[in-house]
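User: Can you fold this complex?
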Amino acid sequence: MLQAVALSCRRGERRLFSDLNVKVERGKLLAVVGENGSGKTSLLRIFSSLLPPEEGSVRWEGQDIHQLKELYSGQLMYLGHLNGLKDDLTAVENLVSSMALAGEPCSESKAKEALEAIGLKRQVHRLPSKVLSQGQKRRVALARLWLSTRPLWLLDEPFTSLDTASTAVVTQRLHAHLQREGLVVVVTHQEIGLPAERLQQLRLAG
Amino acid sequence: MSDSSMWVSISGIIRRDLLLAMRRWSDAAMSVFFLVIVVSLFPLGVGPEPAVLRTIAPGVLWVAALLTCLLSLARVFTPDYLDGVLEQMVLVPQPLSLLVLGKVLAHWVISGLPVVLLSPLLGLQFGLEGEALGVLVLSLLLGTPTLSMIGAIGAALVLGVRGSGLLVALLVLPLYVPVLIFGAGAVTSSMAGIGGEANLSLLGACLVLSLFLAPWATAAALRIALE
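Assistant: Here's the predicted assembly.
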């Protein structure tokens, strides 16, 4: 269970939100929506522990994440709006190295399976990432969803530059994760095609 | 977390950085050419008098090594910062300072080790021979990792700052002074026949100290850069 208690966040002079309380149970997806600049990404970064909140705390299974530190990092997978891909490495190399870095090593064949699951064909696997399109790069980054065993997924606009078919595939993957008692927090502008009982929405006023 | 997953993360980072360096070998090659050219400029400017060249050799070679290291600092964290890998690194369930140590090690292999390997040749160009040449290589072998460690702190501090190239030089060069003094001092004193052991021990001490403190300071700076 992920819980935000009386969170407030300030970026520079601007107060983005204050006294924010939200609770996400296992098996639920929290969609964070709101206008540009309303603090959605900041909230996700606070959830990931990249950004310390000005006030309040984030709790994972009842414990403050700033006390859990590495124990908490071991529970989450974060995908920001940057893809975290190296231009000079191929899709497979990128995927293998970012899984190794995360401490969840995977073989090349597993990486290829994940890339195929998200609809990247074999010809694309061996190309350096710099020649891929935006949507293809996003898909390489999202392929980590097929390899990660972490219960908490924090995704910043995962559907940007994806076509409708890939959006559906990713949504299915999110659904499967929720069915396995996983937890997802998504920052998005899009409707997510999941059953209503799985969904929870948080609108930031800005 | 267990030790094994720690090694997976650290070796993963080292392997990726070395692979990237191989794909972009021209970057590393340029640093090496820079070193060779800077060192070769001195005989042209000062004149070919062997005694003079031998006297200035330790200082020139060490300053050139320092500048070469400085040039490559922009490549340590900036690419990772821009493409989002740094965020992933901070969120790895391992102490960030250990990952930093892995990155600095990779940086040293790419930019410090070539300097060490090339130094006997450059030393010969200045008329160094015998023991002095050996001490030069040894001093660089002990000193260049320290340069990488200290440089990483500077590189992390200036992440995302405008004009960071010059700023990192201003931050880091003063901190390089002790390494320069001990390093060049080792070669000079060995040429004078009093042996370079004292200075080499001090270089070793600098290395140990930086191994302990620099990764920790760098990790703190990286976290601040990402906030």
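The radius of gyration of chain A is 17 Å. Chain A touches chain B through 30 residues (CB under 8 Å).
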